[in-house]
Design brief:
globular; alpha/beta; 19 helices; 7-stranded antiparallel sheet; 534 residues; 8-stranded parallel sheet
């Protein structure tokens, strides 16, 4: 049995590494790791594999649990405002005794079994609960009823569907509940979110036991790969999407171009040019005409050693422009982003029509912004930066032993804080922070290391490794140093090259001053990337 389990763990690891195109040498499992994982697994699972069909039911199996159990709950909806329904279900689960700790990405999927019905949204959450499995099932059924689910045809349309996929390291087989869910292995719309909640690192604990409950010796990774794995994402059957505004964006379909609109007197490139409302609106129209998908408006400079404004001062610059830009017809179908790290500014901006929050500090400079972003229900950009603009270029903040690994680890720590504050992973965008607490050679390495960053994040959370990446290289000083261009306005051709590299390596949103260049190279980059992937 021990030899069989060792082989199963090796298969799980092999299946996990297939996500990234080959073995991860720095992450290989040693013999000690295997023994430790197996011993932990057998010590735990021997106590919690049971059948509720038996008459001698334990308090743990069908009643309350004396200790927290880690669980996975699948979510589905294809009736009404699906995203709002998910938001409501999350809140109701939290108030019903489920402490949600992680979220999967959001998927729009074709209906299964009964195909003549609207497309579904699917996701899943991972959390902790003291509720027993049947208590939990009862709570979920109450939530479904409160949201509006009634009886109907099996597999037919429903406003919400909540299923227990996994409960601790237990197997449950009763008349009302089967765990693991018996149809996990045939449903891409269930397996994709489940995989998101795992990591490619074998933790030797809960995740190892969960994999052991799958029907494949290689765990859920093997089950997912048998259905096609990542190769089926982006097809009509299943798409990974970002809810923003009144739409669902498939960010892998095309790279989005974010045009920069600085309302500051002291930004490093265009400071002072667009402080007046008329000038700002004219620039916004120009950016849109050149092909911008998103206008990112900033009223506070975050260049090195910039003086920090108060929230009130920032709003004084921002509000007049927001009030006018939302009125222009050119904004139809476009998105607005606010570049701020203040909770008050983010809240006011969204109330006035902004669709997403771009926080250079990832919640570090004003932690209240995380709760605010969660309540507002808009996408939130988590950028990597050490310190603040006045300290980010200090010797301590510029020191890295392993750049991509450390940036990925620190970014994921910020993602965890965002999730625990209530921002679902499906609303998070990652930004490696080019030029922020980075030397010039570091910035260049990060552009070329985007795949490495995803891979490192994936060791901790596969879902987090799939979220959109925003890349901001435009006119940055590292380009000037490499190309010997002191004037930022002369760096647009260098920016175009860096953007092209970024798109080829997995950037999904590119933030640029010159949208004319940015839109062209993004389109070409998409074309080249798709050719390289086929």
């Amino acid at each position: 049995m021990l030899l069989h389990a060792k082989e199963s763990l090796r298969k799980m690891f092999s299946a996990a590494t297939s996500y990234y195109g080959g073995p991860m040498q720095s992450h290989a499992l040693s013999a000690f790791d295997l023994r430790h994982s197996l011993n932990s697994y057998y010590n735990k699972t021997s106590r919690h594999v049971f059948s509720c069909k038996a008459r001698s039911l334990t308090q743990f199996s069908c009643g309350g649990s004396s200790s927290d159990q880690e669980i996975v709950i699948a979510m589905g909806s294809n009736v009404g405002d699906r995203v709002s329904t998910f938001d409501r279900a999350l809140q109701m689960m939290k108030s019903s005794g489920v402490n949600i700790t992680r979220h999967a990405c959001l998927y729009e999927t074709a209906p299964a079994y009964v195909i003549d019905q609207p497309r579904f949204l699917n996701s899943a959450v991972r959390g902790m609960t003291k509720l027993g499995p049947h208590e939990l099932l009862k709570k979920l059924k109450e939530i479904e009823k409160d949201i509006g689910r009634t009886g109907g045809i099996r597999y037919g349309p429903r406003p919400i569907d909540l299923d227990i996929l996994l409960y601790g390291n237990s197997q449950i087989d009763s008349e009302t509940l089967i765990v693991p869910h018996e149809r996990i292995h045939e449903r891409p719309f269930v397996l994709a979110p489940l995989i998101d909640l795992l990591g490619t690192s074998c933790d030797g604990g809960t995740e190892t036991s969960w994999h052991s409950l799958s029907k494949c010796s290689g765990g859920f990774f093997e089950s997912w790969n048998k259905l096609g794995g990542e190769s089926i994402i982006g097809t009509e059957g299943i798409k990974r999407v970002l809810p923003v505004g009144n739409r669902l964006l498939d960010w892998c379909e095309k790279t989005l171009v974010m045009g920069i609109l600085n309302l500051t007197p002291d930004s490093f490139s265009d400071g002072g040019k667009f402080q007046q409302v008329e000038a700002a609106i004219a620039q916004a129209k120009l950016l849109i005409s050149q092909g911008a998908d998103i206008i990112d408006i900033g009223a506070q400079s975050t260049r090195p050693f910039a003086k920090r404004l108060s929230p009130n001062d920032e709003l004084e610059r921002l509000v007049p422009v927001l009030d006018e830009i939302t009125k222009i017809p050119e904004m139809e179908g476009k998105l607005l982003s606010v570049d701020t790290f203040y909770a008050e500014v983010a809240s006011e901006a969204v109330k006035r029509g902004v669709h997403m929050i771009n926080d250079v500090s990832g919640g570090k400079l004003d932690p209240r912004i995380l709760k605010v972003a969660a309540e507002l229900g808009v996408p939130y950009v988590v950028m990597h930066m050490r310190g603040d603009p006045s300290t980010m270029q200090s010797e301590q903040n510029l020191h890295y032993d392993d750049l991509c690994r450390e940036v990925a680890s620190e970014l994921y720590t910020q993602v965890r804080e965002a999730e625990l504050s209530g921002i679902p992973l499906w609303r998070i965008v990652l930004d490696p922070g080019i030029g922020f607490s980075k030397k010039s050679e570091d910035s260049a390495e990060l552009v070329s290391g985007l795949k490495s960053i995803r891979r490192e994040v994936g060791k901790m959370s596969i879902g987090a490794s799939h979220v959109p990446i925003l890349l901001g290289v435009s006119r940055k000083s590292f380009l000037g140093e490499i190309c010997n261009l002191a004037n930022p306005d002369e760096r647009d051709p260098a920016t175009a090259v860096a953007v092209t590299a970024g798109v080829l390596l997995g950037a999904n949103i590119v933030r640029v001053h010159n949208v004319g260049y940015g839109a062209v190279v993004a389109k070409l980059g998409d074309k080249f990337r798709k050719k390289m992937e086929t």
